[in-house]
Design goal:
The structure holds two protein chains of two kinds. Chain A is about 65% helix and about 10% strand. By secondary structure, chain A is α/β, with parallel strands linked by helices. In chain A, a hairpin with a 2-residue loop joins strand 4 and strand 5. In chain B, helix 4 packs antiparallel against helix 6, helix 7 packs parallel to helix 10 and helix 9 runs antiparallel to helix 10. The longest helix of chain B has about 55 residues. The N terminus of chain B is likely disordered. The chains are: A alpha/beta, B alpha/beta. At the A-B interface, helix 2, helix 3, helix 5, helix 6 and helix 7 of A face helix 3, helix 4, helix 6, helix 7 and helix 8 of B.
């Protein structure tokens, strides 16, 4: 895991590498102090050498100032390095997610992707920062302090040789056991949060079924289970402190006892004894710090794994290698004008052909074919309706045209070229799609429409909105095209939102326009006006309309009836009414009309 | 549709939970005294334990202060003169003091852990209890994230503060104070010298804390904007792909990411720098003490043993100061968190002054005999109305619902319904038609008193609904909403939610009635399939079928169907039509639907616009009127 993530340190490497240097200098300054102090006590005081004491004291003060300087520099380097690392990682993750195909997107839930990009990266950021600060300092402290202590008196160092392993084993035991208990505790936290979340979301259900007491009981169980698991886990974890104190104090007493004898034998100075005790404190403290990093690492590991999972997700749809090369050399927008790209095909007429297409969801599905043996040819400029029951594969079918999903078998051809031979950007640039789950983004209406074509003039924006029957209601807002939409376009009605999404796609002036059930909330009269545009301002555009309402596709040049992943019939409304039982059935179920979806 | 309010509230940015080691928020509570009193109430029955904690804390702090003082006699009286039996005695005493101190400190942490955990357990329980009593209005005006963070961030902060910070704050102060006193006793002159540096330490700690606090705010703001962008783009990722917007999104993201990086680096730098600065200032005071102490000793005004223990005390100063400056913020954050929790607890609950109860009853001639409801359905339901003279009168539940001149507003001055009068006779099907925001859902939400009306009255079998106990009123009404919400558990559990004592057979029967049986049987574990995360493993249509099964098993006398079949395609809807008809038979039903097939056979269709009834009548009447309904039906008018 560390190896995979460490590449994201990138340009912050120099900061990360500087940390051990500063820490080393800082530790040297800090650890020299007890030694100098010992010389004051053992040499200066007995000899009454005032200049020596003063000089040594000033050295000590200078060392402390040095330690402050190096300490601050260390903080600067470790903070910059670790947060820079997280920023790089976040960018890499986000870019990776941008490459995701629809299959990849379906594989993760939105919530889990967001968590990985936010909380998990932040977890790593904090852990890396602490690790940089502690994991460089503590081992250095440990080694150098031990060396200095050993130099003062090798016999006394035996005490440390016993104390350190005892502490390591003690803390190791606690941590390994506490780890499991904390994992259980985490589960219980998730449980509590789940109950609360469900109650918040389903409060109307709870209230209308008068299930408050039932829910309170559920919560009480979750709450009590959490409390007892937390008490168990933390009770064990707080044992760390007494264990540490016990080892430290025992070592101190042993050192005073042994050292006292040495002092009276004249082999040890009083100052040396005091500085030795100082080193013991620093050494054992370092052991504690190292153990803390291990605890943190264990917690961060889960986050790291989740992030790596995203980073290593195999992108199943990407440009052919030769196109990738082109994209990498130039920015995306420069590409279009780049004469070097003439080799890559462009969508020019809007002819669509399905050749023996079979599709199944490779990752999420049960292995059953969603579409099988689909064959049809659509001429440029035709308007095509697609109808069929829920789950018959309508959306999947049209999503294959802009290569949002990859066919399992067979081929989809646009302008007689396999979609896999296009550059994705060129292919999708020529196709306008209004998805079933359409999304508007926070920003003004104009900004949202301009997604279709950033360079579009005001005239083009207005005419697209007029074609989509959106201009009128946009102008009814006080701020017109500058009306600010909330996230997800919450402040427009369902029908208005759909029309904005259609305008956005129309602004692209695509050769192929796909409307996936995207007029369901628009009334029939308005919808009819939108359809008129398909025959006039978008006369040369091939249009695919998926609809629940027969009325939406009645006038189409061709209607494709899908049933259970296969084409059950192709023809005009009148032809199908005569020949296709499924079409007839759908039609008759709607005879009574639909007020609106 | 489940949120009838039209206006948009800015979504509150609820940041992610603090990761381990994250800094606490730098926020201050408004009325500290009151919050502390209320928090103490939660510990009222733990006074004894608290007193013990207090004593243990004093013992452990004075133990560690005294242990260091012993260095002086150890060196001066035993080591230097070479009195080893005395040294052994003193060391035994020292070991004893340390042991007691460590034991007291451990005991105190265990006890405090227990107190804090039990206390926050009660707080969570009370908060959840309170949440269940809050009116829907509260949930409309607060985001889920907001309430969620009461449980997660706020109560967590309280827990942290009580479990660690308070004790650390207190014992750090004690140790600090003890050390200061001992240093003064050992040598007042020397203390003044190192005391000056200690004062500098204090100011340095405060300076960096407040600096990092400022940057911390900037960091949180940038983090909010960064996370907001992630959410928005990931949510609309498919649209991003379709419009080749990836590069632009990357660019915008890296811009926000860089802003966050700069702010976070500053905040963490200033927070992190406290430690080395204070600790090394501490080292400096150690240096000053060693130098001046050495000089004093040479001058004969101090001795080596005293110097050793003075130096140990000096070493001890840094820790409490960083502790105090760290924990102080944690405690403030906890108090602010507790304040927000108490704010929720102080919210006005749904008021329920009703006294009339719903009871199962057997009809005996014209009077009713109340029967206890234990699995066996009574032949009738009746309202049990207490009379002034202490007797009770039973009124049969029939399902007669009337609105008399009802006016209602979610916000004062913005009426959503005005002057609505309508009636539903027992067994009738009433349908509402109108645009979003016309007030359809609101009407159904008034019947079961999700909201209370301002003017007019609503009666149920002639009884004003305000006089009926809310729980009993709601038990008599079954609701199926457009957004179906399921709970973690098996499919069977979710159907049984309608009536907790329903048998498996009854649940399966209900599923069959809702045409849900066939898809349930095709699930991997059939009725025992676990539903997770609000049923995201089921399609919206399947979830609606389950919701219909759930209400079928509840078997309520009155049904409210709010777009209950909106996500079921027209062919499937035909299949369940029979089941729905059976379900609706003999019950008063209120239906909100877009589809004519659901609406057309209603006894009365009510067309609403801007909170007023503009047309009413049955399907044929309304078509003849050639009004709004006619235009809707013929597709000349848009509902949105």
């Amino acid at each position: 895991m560390l190896k995979k993530l460490s590449v994201y340190i990138g340009k912050y490497k120099k900061y990360v590498l500087a940390v051990p240097v500063f820490v080393f200098l800082d530790v040297i300054c800090e650890l020299s102090m007890p030694l100098l102090m010992a010389r004051i006590v053992d040499q200066g005081i007995p000899a009454g050498d005032i200049p020596f004491i003063t000089r040594t004291g000033i050295y000590m003060i200078l060392l402390a100032l040095g330690a402050i300087t190096f300490g601050v520099m260390n903080m600067k380097a470790s903070t910059t390095g670790s947060i820079g690392f997280a920023a790089n990682l976040r960018n890499a993750l986000f870019e990776k997610v941008q490459q995701f195909s629809f299959t990849n997107i379906d594989q993760f839930s939105t919530a889990s992707l967001v968590t990985r990009l936010t909380n998990d990266v932040n977890n790593l950021q904090t852990t890396f920062m602490m690790a940089l600060r502690l994991l460089t300092r503590a081992p250095m402290m440990l080694v150098i302090a031990f060396f200095l202590a050993y130099n003062i008196n090798s016999e006394l160092a035996i005490v440390l040789a016993i104390a350190i392993p005892v502490l390591v084993i003690g803390i190791g035991l606690i941590i390994s056991k506490a780890g499991r208990l904390f994992a259980i505790m985490q589960q219980k936290i998730d449980n509590i949060n789940r109950v609360i979340q469900e109650n918040l979301v389903g409060i109307r259900v709870v209230k209308s079924y008068v299930r408050e007491d039932h829910e309170k009981d559920k919560f009480k169980i979750a709450n009590d289970e959490f409390t007892s698991s937390a008490i168990k886990a933390i009770n064990l974890a707080i044992l760390n402190m007494p264990v540490m104190m016990f080892v430290l104090n025992s070592a101190t007493i042993a050192i005073i006892w042994l050292g006292g004898k040495m002092i009276s034998a004249g082999t040890l100075g009083t100052g040396e004894l005091i500085s030795f005790i100082s080193y013991v404190l620093l050494i054992l403290n370092s052991v504690m710090m190292i153990s803390m990093v291990f605890i943190m690492y264990a917690r961060a590991e889960a986050s790291g794994q989740r992030i790596i999972e995203v980073l290593e997700t195999k992108i199943d749809i990407s440009d052919k290698p030769e196109w990738t090369l082109l994209t990498n050399t130039k920015g995306s927008e420069a590409m279009i004008a780049n004469p070097g790209s003439i080799d890559s095909p462009k969508v020019s007429t809007g002819k669509v052909e399905f050749r023996n297409v079979t599709f199944k969801y490779a990752l999420t599905g049960s292995g059953e074919n969603v579409l099988h043996n689909i064959n049809f040819v659509i001429k440029p400029g035709e308007v095509v309706g697609i109808v069929g029951g829920t789950g018959s594969g309508k959306s999947t079918l049209v999503n294959l045209i802009p290569r949002l999903y990859e066919v399992t078998e067979g081929a989809v051809l646009v302008d007689d070229v396999d979609v896999r031979d296009y550059r994705l950007e060129d292919l999708r640039g020529g196709i306008g799609v209004v998805l079933q789950m359409n999304t508007l983004f926070s920003g003004t209406i104009r900004e949202n429409i301009l997604w279709g074509n950033e360079q579009a003039s005001e005239q083009e924006v207005i005419s697209a909105c007029k074609d989509a029957q959106a201009h009128e209601f946009i102008m009814s807002f006080p701020d017109g095209y500058d009306t600010v939409l909330g996230q997800g376009g919450v402040n427009v009605s369902g029908g208005q939102k759909q029309r904005l999404c259609i305008a956005r796609a129309m602004l692209k002036k695509p050769k192929i326009l796909i409307l996936d059930d995207s007029t369901s909330a628009v009334d029939m009269a308005t919808e009819a006006k939108i359809r008129e545009a398909f025959y006039h301002s978008l006369a040369g555009t091939t249009v695919f309309i998926i609809a629940q309402r027969i009325s939406s596709v009645r006038e189409a040049d061709k209607i494709i009836v899908l049933d259970d992943g296969g084409v059950s019939g192709v023809g005009t409304h009148d032809q199908l009414l005569k020949t296709n039982t499924i079409y007839k059935e759908i039609n008759s179920s709607q005879q009574e009309g639909v007020l609106a979806q | 549709m489940n949120n009838p309010r039209k206006e948009i509230r800015p979504m509150q940015q609820t940041g992610p939970r603090h990761g381990p080691g994250a800094m606490p928020g730098f926020e201050k509570p408004k009325d500290t005294g009151r919050i502390i009193r209320r928090l103490l109430e939660y510990m009222a029955n733990r006074k004894f334990q608290l007193v013990i904690v207090f004593f243990l804390m004093i013992i452990s702090a004075s133990g560690s202060v005294a242990g260091n003082y012993l260095l002086k006699p150890l060196i001066n009286n035993y080591i230097l003169p070479g009195d080893f039996s005395g040294l052994a005695r003193m060391l035994t005493l020292m070991a004893g003091i340390y042991l007691v101190s460590v034991g007291a400190s451990y005991g105190q942490s265990r006890l405090m852990l227990l107190i804090a955990q039990r206390m926050t357990n009660s707080m969570r329980r009370d908060l959840f209890k309170k949440m269940q009593t809050l009116p829907l209005k509260y949930f409309d005006t607060h985001t889920h994230g907001e309430l969620m963070s009461r449980y997660t961030n706020d109560i967590d902060n309280v827990q942290m503060a009580f479990e660690q910070s308070l004790v650390q704050l207190f014992s750090s102060s004690l140790m600090f104070l003890g050390a200061v006193i001992m240093m003064i006793i050992l040598n007042p002159v020397l203390f003044i010298a190192s005391g000056t540096i200690i004062a500098v330490m204090f100011f340095a700690a405060r300076f960096f804390t407040s600096r990092s606090g400022k940057f911390y705010k900037a960091q949180q703001k940038n983090l909010g904007s960064l996370n907001g962008y992630v959410e928005e783009i990931v949510d609309g990722l498919k649209v991003v792909k379709v419009f080749n917007y990836e590069d632009k999104a990357n660019l915008e993201f890296s811009k926000r990411n860089e802003d966050y990086r700069v702010a976070a680096t500053n905040a963490n730098f200033f927070a992190g720098v406290i430690m080395p600065v204070v600790m090394n200032l501490n080292n400096m005071s150690y240096a000053v003490a060693a130098m001046l102490g050495g000089l004093l000793t040479v001058a004969g005004r101090f001795d080596v043993g005293s110097l050793a223990s003075f130096l140990q005390y000096t070493r001890q100063m840094g820790m409490p100061i960083t502790m105090i400056s760290n924990q102080f913020n944690t405690v403030l954050a906890a108090l602010a968190g507790a304040e927000r929790v108490f704010e929720v607890m102080d919210e006005k609950p749904e008021d329920d002054l009703g006294v009339i109860k719903l009871v199962g009853a057997n009809k005996n001639m014209e009077s009713f005999i109340e029967v206890s409801h234990n699995g066996v359905h009574p032949t009738h339901w009746a309202w049990k109305v207490p009379q002034a003279d202490g007797s009770v009168q039973y009124i049969e539940l029939k399902g007669d619902v009337r609105f008399n001149n009802v006016t209602f507003a979610y916000e004062p001055g913005v009426p959503v319904l005005s002057g609505i009068s309508l009636y539903a006779k027992p067994g009738q099907k009433i349908a509402f038609v109108g645009s979003t925001g016309a007030g359809k859902t609101t009407i159904t939400n008034l019947i079961n008193r999700f909201y209370d009306i301002e003017e007019g009255s609503i009666t149920f079998d002639g009884i004003n609904v305000k006089l009926i106990k809310k729980d009993d009123l709601r038990k008599s009404l079954g609701m199926v909403l457009q957004d179906t919400h399921l709970f973690t558990g098996t499919v069977m559990d979710n159907i049984r939610y309608g009536r907790l004592d329903a048998t498996d057979e009854e649940c399966v029967q209900a599923a069959k009635q809702a045409s849900a049986d066939s898809f349930i049987r095709r699930l991997p574990q059939g009725y025992n399939t676990l539903i997770t995360a609000d049923g995201t493993n089921l399609s919206q249509g399947q979830r609606q079928l389950l919701a219909i099964a759930r209400v079928a098993v509840a078997d309520p006398p009155v049904l409210i169907l709010d777009e209950a079949t909106s996500s079921i395609d027209t062919r499937t809807e035909r299949l369940i039509e029979k089941g729905m008809d059976a379900l609706m038979k003999g019950r008063t039903v209120f239906v909100i639907a877009h589809r004519l097939s659901t609406v057309r056979n209603a006894n009365a269709i009510i067309v609403l616009e801007h909170g007023e009834i503009i047309e009413r009548g049955d399907h044929d009447d309304l078509l003849k009127q050639k009004g709004r309904y006619y235009r809707l039906y013929t597709g000349q008018y848009e509902l949105a």
